[in-house]
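Hi support team,

I'm filing this because I wasn't sure whether my run with zinc ion finished correctly. The job status page said complete, but I'd like someone to confirm that the output block is well-formed before I use it downstream. Pasting the exact inputs I used:
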Amino acid sequence: MLKIGIKDLAKYPFLTEAGEYLGNTGLNLEQLGHPDWKPIVEKAYGRIVVASSGQIYGSDLESLDNDSELLSFIVAIILLKSAGISTLIRRFSLAEARRAERYLQQDLWVSRDKKNLELPLKIIRDLFAVDVSIDNDEFVIKVPDYLQRAVHFHEKEWKLVNRRVTNGLVYLTAHETVRLIRAELGEYINGKIQSVNIESIPQGFKQRVDDLVLLAKKFSDTTYVSSEYPPCVKHGIEVLEKGENLPHSGRFLLATYLLSKGQTVDQVAPLFKNAPDYNERTTKYQLEHISGSSGSGTKYQCPSCEKLRSESLCFATPDCDGIINPIQFGKKRKNQ
Amino acid sequence: MNEKNALLIEGAFKEYYFNRFDLIHVPQRATEREFGYQKFNSGMIRHLVIRNDKELHLLLMKEIPSDVYCSNAYYTFPNLPMSEKDWKGADLIFDIDAKDLALPCRKDHTIFKCSSCNNSITEFQPHCPKCNSTKFETISVSCKNCISESKKEVTKLVDMLTSDLGVKKEQIEIYFSGNEGFHMRVTNNDYEPLGSQERADLVDYIMFNGAIPESFGIRKQNNSKTSLPTLDEKGWRGRIAKGLFPSKSKTPKISKEIISNGYSAFQVQLEEIKKTMGVRVDPKVTMDIHRIFRLEGSINSKSGLSKIQCNDLDSFDPFLEACLLGDDEVKVMINSPLQIRLKNKKFGPYNDELVSLPKYAAVYMLCKGLGNAI
Ligand code: SF4
Ligand SMILES: [Zn+2]
Ligand SMILES: [Zn+2]
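And here is everything the job wrote out:
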């Protein structure tokens, strides 16, 4: 039997085993409300704040000789559930997924010699129903399993044709293997949090819950998403909302499209907040450049459908019939 | 199509559908599939459930369809409207058509028929020399070369499916399409759930679309020989190695050249290799997970030939083996600058002549728009 220790749980606190571990310690919610546990509540709150800013909460695993990593994750969930704000939960899940992704990658990499591969491979298999095996220091997964995940990435190197493929298997590095399941990891953690039920919380948590509600206000300036957007634009927005990486050409499409529909730089900028490499200043700068309000003063035009098709960014539906630029979407109707 | 032609063709199809039950079967898991058919001069009827061979034979005899189709997809409720069918998965399908292969022989057996005066010309012109109309219908037949080139594509695809993609030989069925090419169906549980986007990427793999030099060892900067593909590699890297290096001994010299020629030159080389090694399938067919695809055993009304399975691809001759209509003589008016070959006999060219032809040949001419019933 695979033995999962406290260190593993500190890395992967969303595993079912974490609950069992807690059960065994005999600790309950009421006790956690005691002032003695205040540092854990603070740590949990910090974890959420870091996550909501789009950063990854780093743990020093070497000093993980106590349960605080695991406990702060659990408390964070309680705080999030009590605040009940789904944007925060989503951001937290994403950030936690990225954090776990780092560990998974490390665990896969250092244990290629098979000794300790059991845990990371088990996580991948159990949580995401993907069978990963090892072939000479490399990780292999079945072509269909690969395709179902890789099609969400738009960089050319993820196209199957740019992969090594043999006998129905795709060869990947540890980094790529983990990258492939990132979105699912986020969804898994999100689902876990959603399924938690909390009846009442200890008094000692209340202040931080209120703080979270305040914090969430900062993110309420969400971009207006209209059903009138063309499929390529909707798709780009969805990719970003999932925290996936949208290639430059996709961001360019969103920016030019939304700006030409009369949105302002300040309205468009928050859209890119979830991007893995988000930086507020550069995003604003680039948007201003595209809008023509800085630099050369030239306003960039929305790329044509043909261009987008060649970049695999077109997701045409019958409503796209007869248009050559996304800007025209919805204006011309087929029957006209 | 004019009434008289439709009647003649329908009569020939009827004989076939009454007599060749041995060739016409529903595919496996028929109850989970959607069927559809078309009659001469009328629209498509879809969303049908046909449970077994008997129901299929009954429908064919009753309706004498011009074309019959069946989904590659599996549904919980195949007879409900598309949004309620509950898609469960689909076979992988491929369409290889001689028309899409850019073969030099095509111009020898493609003609353009003026839509207003029926005059046919063999070289394309923007205006009809007789009546000056600008509307033409393209009519083509296949030659031996078309068929053997299409077979090469089929063979390449089978190789890619089995050695790269993990599909077993027994999971691949190869059919003559009934007109100018081949259809393939792969039944493999792992691939069945794939959606349209995944299938699109799979098609790009097969066609070698979207490959970047980096994947084959050439970056914009800092190149070294070590990451170029080698002859013993599998998959596309192995194929590219075969395209680049004619032999092991020449490899070091050619590698050096490739590296010094740089990124864009290599990109051009990859494009060249794609032309010969990529499989030319119709991407739309493979990507479409709700398509109804021509049913094996049924007749293709574009030619009067049947869509039938090829058990031995190399020796398969569609003009013999898929030509299954009767051979009693019928009188027809034929205007065909093209000569055709069916059942090892040659027919034509005919210049608006009243001729007596075996029924299979008469139907072929009429289906192609090269003649009329009298
Ligand atoms: S057709 Fe044009 S508007 Fe429609 S999805 Fe494609 S790129 Fe966008
Ligand atoms: Zn004419
Ligand atoms: Zn030909």
